[in-house]
């Protein structure tokens, strides 16, 4: 293979990206060397098994991916602003909408939420870490390496271009002859391992590691949402694993699962994809519901209205999410009874979702609402999500769907649910829990500016798309004619996209600004919180709780404060040595080997795939022989750390 | 949460520590995910059954004698694996290791016959590239076989650890978990035997 086949050449945009990647890497290496931070990076981050640090790394990666996916989005908006534009050709446009969708769902939304789960769940249930800290590091690194493998596609070898749904035969090796589609298959496969492990890890954590007294029905709502999400992950992700493997076999080894020849069945892919894919959209929305529940309850200064109804509605939504998948292809031509069944199950989801919406409203009713950035995101979520939900019900009617299918109406619908649901929740959660991790708040003024830019921009961008859809504009077209009448609304949408980009930039700046200038907190409880995470100092000591608290009801920390028991004096409580897990380099190395194996398979260099695969097996053996005994933090050391963290005099 | 350092006589060795309990629960949940994985493979197999294009069908090719030997070997290995855990519960390290070794040998025997069977099919003109039916056949069976192969390797390393470190809560947990895995593969095989071979011979 010649070098100009290996690297993507001939496009100035990509050439610019290649140069900037090289410069960024040189810059990072230079800074790390100059400030002698390599050991720090290795010891504190690359080999850590601490759930808080892994959470931070998840969120940083997710924000980077939000940037990458956002740039993709802006490129598409630039191309679509004018009719007959020639900014991007059709191939390049297809690559961009493919990577935009895949990155936003798999490498932005999920890791952002999993990052928040990592930071918050053990703290909310009074645990010292997750059930399997080592596995948690494997989860992160496989996600990260999978994401990197997918992301390098646009500079090395070429991007996938068959859409994030990768329908066959388009994604088969005849119509997508390059290696781009292989990146999709291997990148998702590798990061999928991490997601499945996260699901198992957090479910066991929640089932087995709750503080004494915290029954299931006393768990904070975000923990509940995580538990339900884990169950969705555990049963949905293996389906994706199999579907991806089948397509990989089709493309690499000439199998015939989805081919047009020799008995293959293209619609089998669509079915398998959406049997995973529909639970997947609930995997990214249920934790969002959990975040909003926490934020709304805290800033309404009331306990959550209808706690039990909130739990049961999530369970019902999770169950229904497995039996609605056909609504993604009503137009496939299944008989009327099949479409009717899936219409009804889809509509049924709006019932438990409606219950949740009303419960949030009733939580706020007669509450002393405090408006800040986190709460603003939660407030904006409700009406915007309702718009997304109602248009979803419109789409769920199979007969009507023949009209909406594959138009901008659909594009607008899923952006309304995914952005106002998941993305708003990520921002709300970040603003809400950021002080817990870093010991200072994010700047409120900048937060509000970015909020208004983003939310207004979001509506300006996506609301017109409903009408573009009615006007017949199909999704995934790279251009349109002037006579189509779609010009003016596309201009409006592009202005909205620009506002969202500005909002994102202000958000990133606000992190920088707050790190430098924000006032350092003297308390671990800046919001007058209700759940156990606020009883720890900020930043949280690595063992989380010097003494595991006892729980007597819902909102335990709020109750402790009311009873006057919240003050934690390290000299008055009896402490025991704390057992903590050792750091490990195995997850990082294993994931690099996964990357090597994946890269080899992408290029169909089997020798490289085999070397990587054997390497992965060796790291597993190394791990199996590791006694993994951990170490104990002694009482004196705990006292010292607590005094410092709680800023008490020595 | 109490610290479970003291020995509880009512619980078997592998359940003695909290960490072990979590590991075992985690593995049960992992097996739940495995059910979803094999469930998907079975669904694909049934959907693609009969789509043999110009290639041979299952009835003409299935080497039912080999399959019976494989079935017999694998079911026996599940029995010996059960005996191993039985000996472990009695605190008999030698018995545990002996029966695990039997299980391991039977696993290897199963793999030998399965590979022979696959080679036979390929010689008769049925490979993963022949038709959708054979793609799904080899993927389903291959996934099961790969699991068995992984289990054989895994069991080898657990045997080494048992020999070196003796029978303690950690090694007991590891032996117990691989026994869960091994029984699970047996259950999958029963579905394969019924759903793939018997159905394939009859239909």
From TrEMBL, chain A:
Pathway it works in: Energy metabolism; oxidative phosphorylation
Domain of life according to the entry: Bacteria
Membrane disposition: Multi-pass membrane protein
PROSITE patterns on file: COX1, COX1_CUB
Cofactor: ferriheme a; Cu cation
Predominant subcellular localization, coarse grouping: membrane
Cofactor note: Heme A3. Binds a copper B center.
Keywords: Cell membrane, Copper, Electron transport, Heme, Hydrogen ion transport, Ion transport, Iron, Membrane, Metal-binding, Oxidoreductase, Respiratory chain, Transmembrane, Transmembrane helix, Transport
Example of a GO cellular component annotation carried by this entry: plasma membrane
UniProt catalytic activity: 2 a quinol + O2 = 2 a quinone + 2 H2O
Top EC class for this record: oxidoreductase
EC number: 1.10.3.-
Residues annotated as transmembrane: 12-33, 54-76, 96-121, 133-156, 183-207, 227-249, 269-292, 304-328, 340-362, 374-394, 414-434, 446-471, 491-512, 588-621
Single GO MF annotation: heme binding
Keyword Methyltransferase recorded: no
Subcellular compartments: Cell membrane
GO terms for biological process, alphabetical: electron transport coupled proton transport; oxidative phosphorylation; respiratory electron transport chain
Domain Cytochrome oxidase subunit I profile: 34-552
Purpose of the protein: Catalyzes quinol oxidation with the concomitant reduction of oxygen to water. Major component for energy conversion during vegetative growth.
Family from the record: Belongs to the heme-copper respiratory oxidase family.
Name of protein: Quinol oxidase subunit 1
Species per Swiss-Prot/TrEMBL record: Pontibacillus litoralis JSM 072002
Lineage summary: Bacteria, Bacillati, Bacillota, Bacilli, Bacillales
From TrEMBL, chain B:
InterPro entries: Cyt_c/ubiquinol_Oxase_su3 (IPR024791), Cyt_c_oxidase-like_su3 (IPR000298), Cyt_c_oxidase_su3-like_sf (IPR035973), Cyt_c_oxidase_su3_a-hlx (IPR013833), QoxC (IPR014246), Ubiquinol_oxase_su3_dom (IPR033946)
Major location (coarse): membrane
Pfam families reported for this sequence: COX3
Transmembrane intervals: 25-47, 67-85, 97-113, 133-163, 175-198
MF-aspect GO terms: cytochrome-c oxidase activity; oxidoreductase activity
UniProt subcellular location: Cell membrane
Lineage top rank: taxon: Bacteria
Membrane topology: Multi-pass membrane protein
Ranges of residues in domain Heme-copper oxidase subunit III family profile: 25-201
Example of a GO biological process term: ATP synthesis coupled electron transport
CDD domains registered for this protein in UniProt: Ubiquinol_oxidase_III
SUPFAM superfamilies according to UniProt: Cytochrome c oxidase subunit III-like
General function of this protein: Catalyzes quinol oxidation with the concomitant reduction of oxygen to water.
Name of the protein in question: Quinol oxidase subunit 3
Organism name: Pontibacillus litoralis JSM 072002
């Amino acid at each position: 293979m010649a070098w100009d086949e290996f690297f993507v050449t001939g496009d100035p945009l990509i050439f610019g990206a290649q140069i900037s990647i090289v410069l960024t890497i040189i810059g990072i290496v230079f800074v790390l060397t100059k400030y002698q931070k390599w050991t720090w990076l290795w010891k504190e981050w690359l080999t850590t098994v601490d759930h808080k640090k892994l959470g931070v790394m998840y969120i940083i990666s997710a924000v980077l991916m939000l940037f990458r996916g956002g740039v993709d989005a802006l490129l598409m908006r630039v191309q679509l602003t004018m009719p007959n534009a020639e900014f991007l050709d059709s191939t390049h446009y297809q690559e961009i909408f493919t990577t935009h969708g895949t990155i936003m769902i798999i490498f932005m939304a999920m890791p952002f939420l999993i990052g928040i789960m990592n930071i918050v769940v053990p703290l909310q249930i009074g645990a010292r870490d997750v059930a399997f800290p080592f596995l948690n590091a494997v989860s992160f690194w496989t996600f990260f390496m999978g994401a990197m493998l997918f992301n390098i596609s646009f500079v090395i070898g070429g991007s996938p271009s068959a859409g994030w749904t990768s329908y066959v035969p388009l994604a088969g090796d005849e119509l997508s002859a390059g290696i781009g589609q292989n990146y999709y298959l291997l990148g998702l496969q590798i990061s999928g391992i991490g997601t499945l492990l996260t699901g198992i890890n957090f479910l066991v954590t929640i089932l087995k590691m709750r503080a004494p007294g915290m029954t299931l029905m006393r768990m904070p709502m975000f923990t509940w949402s995580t538990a339900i999400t884990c169950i969705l992950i555990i049963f949905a992700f293996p389906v994706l694993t199999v579907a991806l493997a089948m397509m990989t076999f089709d493309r690499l080894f000439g199998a015939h699962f989805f081919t047009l020849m020799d008995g293959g069945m293209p619609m089998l892919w669509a079915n398998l994809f959406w049997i995973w894919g529909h639970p997947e959209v609930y995997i990214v929305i249920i934790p969002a519901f959990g975040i909003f529940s926490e934020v709304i309850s805290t800033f309404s200064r009331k306990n959550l209205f209808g706690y039990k109804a909130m739990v049961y509605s999530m369970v019902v939504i999770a169950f229904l999410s497995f039996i609605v998948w056909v609504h993604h292809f009503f137009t496939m031509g299944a008989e009327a009874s099949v479409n009717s069944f899936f219409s009804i199950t889809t509509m049924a989801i709006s019932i438990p979702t409606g219950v949740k919406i009303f419960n949030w409203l009733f939580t706020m009713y007669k509450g002393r609402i405090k408006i800040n950035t986190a709460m603003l995101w939660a407030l904006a979520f409700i009406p915007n999500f309702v718009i997304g939900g109602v248009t979803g019900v419109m789409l769920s009617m199979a007969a009507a769907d023949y009209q909406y299918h594959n138009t901008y109406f659909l594009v607008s619908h899923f952006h309304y649910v995914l952005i106002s649901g998941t993305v708003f929740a990520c921002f709300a959660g970040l603003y809400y829990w950021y002080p817990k991790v870093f010991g200072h708040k994010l700047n409120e003024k900048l937060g509000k500016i970015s909020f208004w830019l983003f939310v207004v921009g979001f509506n300006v961008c996506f609301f017109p798309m409903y009408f573009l859809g009615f006007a017949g504009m199909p999704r995934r077209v790279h251009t349109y004619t002037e006579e189509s009448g779609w010009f003016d609304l596309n201009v409006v949408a592009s202005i909205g996209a620009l506002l969202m980009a500005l909002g994102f930039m202000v958000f990133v700046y606000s992190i920088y600004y707050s790190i430098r200038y924000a006032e350092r907190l003297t308390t671990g409880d800046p919001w007058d919180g209700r759940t156990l995470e606020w009883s720890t100092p900020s930043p949280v000591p690595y063992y989380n709780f010097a003494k595991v608290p006892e729980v007597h009801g819902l909102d335990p920390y709020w109750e402790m404060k009311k009873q006057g028991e919240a003050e934690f004096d390290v000299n008055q409580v009896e402490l025991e040595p704390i057992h903590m897990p050792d750091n490990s380099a195995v997850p990082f190395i294993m994931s690099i080997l996964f990357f090597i194996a994946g890269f080899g398979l992408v290029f169909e260099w089997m020798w490289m795939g085999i070397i990587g695969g054997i390497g992965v097996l060796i790291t597993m053996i190394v791990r199996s022989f590791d006694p993994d005994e951990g170490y104990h933090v002694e009482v004196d050391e705990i006292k010292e750390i607590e005094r410092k963290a709680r800023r008490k005099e020595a | 949460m109490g610290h479970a350092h003291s020995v509880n006589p009512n619980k078997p060795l592998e359940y003695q520590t909290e960490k072990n309990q979590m590991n075992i629960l985690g593995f049960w949940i992992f097996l739940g995910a495995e059910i979803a994985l094999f469930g998907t493979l079975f669904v694909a197999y049934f959907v693609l059954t009969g789509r043999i294009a110009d290639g041979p069908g299952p009835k003409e090719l299935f080497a039912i004698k080999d399959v019976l030997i494989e079935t017999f070997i694998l079911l026996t290995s599940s029995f010996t694996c059960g005996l191993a855990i039985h000996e472990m519960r009695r605190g008999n390290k030698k018995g545990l290791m002996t029966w695990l070794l039997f299980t391991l040998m039977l696993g290897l025997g199963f793999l030998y016959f399965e590979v022979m069977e696959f080679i036979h099919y390929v010689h008769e003109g049925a490979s993963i590239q022949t038709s959708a039916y054979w793609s799904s056949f080899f993927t389903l069976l291959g996934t099961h076989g790969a699991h068995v192969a992984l289990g054989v390797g895994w069991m080898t390393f657990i045997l080494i650890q048992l020999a070196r470190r003796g029978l303690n809560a950690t090694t007991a947990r590891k032996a117990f978990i691989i026994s869960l895995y091994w029984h699970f593969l047996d259950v999958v095989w029963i579905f394969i035997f019924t759903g793939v071979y018997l159905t394939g011979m009859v239909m």
